[in-house]
Structure formats: structure tokens, C-alpha cells
Amino acid sequence: MHRGKGMKFVGDSRVPVSNKKHIPKDYSEYPGKTEAFWPNFLLKEWLVGSVFLVAFLCLTAAHPSPLEKVADPTAAGYIPLPDWYFLFMYQLIKYTYASGDFNVIGTLVIPGLAFGALLLAPFLDRGPERRPSKRPIATGMMLLAFASVAYLTWESASHVDWEARAESAKIVAEAEIDKDSEGYAIYSAQSCIGCHGQDLEGGPAGKALVDNGLSPEDIARIAREGQGNMPANAFEGSDEELQKLAEFISSVTSK
Q1: Is residue 233 assigned to a domain?
Q2: Is 79 exposed, middle or buried (0-12, 13-18, 19+ CB in 10 A)?
Q3: 196 is known to lie in a ligand binding site
């Protein structure tokens, strides 16, 4: 057989000539609804991201993060509180069936179900619609999540004494205190530690007494007449003890 002769081409109807089923249509077939990824879409995303980044940098420069004193597990006056974005979890574990013996429910089960539903959202609602009203499952899940977080955050924030919290977390100067002195013995005996702290660092019920700038006479007068949260006649000792206590507190200064 000579080359090129006697050859026949047989077509099989089971083999398609071309398979266009999995080839997406060109974006030009959807005018006004799609656009080229490069550079149109990517440029818009970059511009939006840049605006948010600049705004965030300006916010952090104008309002720097507040610093608190070093955490001390022995300080009974310190009021622990998480950052605002965790307040909803802080409130959740206060409820009966999410704390105590049921702490696992509040810390693992409920958050696990919430994040699990978020991960499964693309599989639970696979519709092509983009309108929220046409996607009831995804819309309902997100509305429920936002409402729950907003309510728990509000409940937690409304029950916090923010002034006392700020006072208990305030950074105070360290002072060298002679705890063997007679003045400190009177300070301990009069239960001043409960409000003003073991090292006069202050607490939720009392101000810091380090570098107070008051004279012994002013301190003695406040102890007798009261001031702010401190009631009148809080000191129950003698005038001589009050004088020694006032001189001790007035002498406490930072290092």
C-alpha cells in the first residue's frame, strides 16, 4: 500500500468534536455585570484596601492602645475584662447553662456550632442568587449571628463599672514601702488595704495613694470627713494613730 492511499477516517458519534460545557463564557457576554480581573477588578480592590489601611493607621495614631498595669493574680482589687470584641463571649459564660458545670457548653459547644455553621454556609446555600431575600438560609444565619453578638456585647458592657475598671487597671508608680513601720501597721489594722491596695496602688473602691501630693493634715481631714467613695469617720483609731497614718501615707513616693 502506497503512503497516503487506502486510508479511511472513521467518525465515532460517541466522541464529541469539542467539549464546551466546562468552558466559561467570556465576560463580554455579560455587559455591566462582569469585568476583567486585570487590571479593572484588581485595581478597585487595591484602592479600597488602601483607603481602609490609611484610615486604620490614622485611627491608631490618633487613639493609641491604652496600656494597663502588669497583671497580678494576687491583686484582689483588679477587675479582669477582655477586649471589646470578646465581650460577647465574656457575657455568654455568665449564664447558668454556659458556666460552672456547663462551662464546656459556653466555651466549646456553642462557639463550635456557630463557627461550624459559618464554615458550612457555602454548602448549605448554593443558590446563584445574590439578593439577601433570595437566600434565606445564609441571610438568616448571618442576621442571627449579628444579633446574638450585638446583644451579648451590649449586656456585658452595660454591667461594667468602667470608672472602677479604669482605676483598677491604671498604671501606678512603684514605691518603696516600709511594711515594718508603725504607720503601715495602722494602715493594715484600719482595713485600708481593702480599698487602696497592699502597696497603696489603689483598687476599684479606692484611689492610689502613691505620690498623692497631700499633706498629713489633708489626709487626716479626709479620713475624718470622707471624700468620694470614702465615707466619713472611716478611721476608727485615736488622734495619735491618725497622725502617724497620715504622715506615713504622705511620705510614700515613687522610686
Answers
A1: yes
A2: middle
A3: yes
CA gap 255, 252 in Å, rounded: 10
Q: Is 58 annotated as a binding residue?
A: no
> 136: closest CA among 123, 147, 125, 144?
125
Question: Each residue of 90-124: b (16+ CB within 10 Å) or e?
Answer: bbbeeeeebeeeeeebbeeebeeeeeeeeeeeeee
Q: Round the average pLDDT of the chain to a whole number and report it.
A: 78
How many H helices and E strands in the chain?
Answer: 10, 0
Q: Is the dihedral angle over the CA atoms 17, 21, 24, 25 positive or is it negative?
A: positive
What's the average model confidence in pLDDT over 148-163? 88
In a domain, 198, yes or no: yes
In the chain, the N- to C-terminal Cα span, in Å, equals 109
Residue written as cell 502597696?
199
Classify residue 116: in a domain, yes or no. yes
Domain range for 210: 172-251
Contact between 205 and 194 under an 8 Å Cβ cutoff? The reply is yes
- Asked whether the beta carbons of 210 and 241 are under 8 A apart, the reply is no
Residue-wise pLDDT for 10-53, tens only, equals 555 555 556 566 666 666 666 666 677 788 888 999 999 999 99
The answer as to whether 5 is a domain residue is no
pLDDT in tens, 89-111: 889 888 888 888 888 888 899 98
How do residues 190-219 score in pLDDT, each as one tens digit? 777 777 777 777 766 677 777 777 788 888
What total of structural domains would you count in the chain?
3
DSSP 56: H
CB 61 within 8 A of CB 53: no
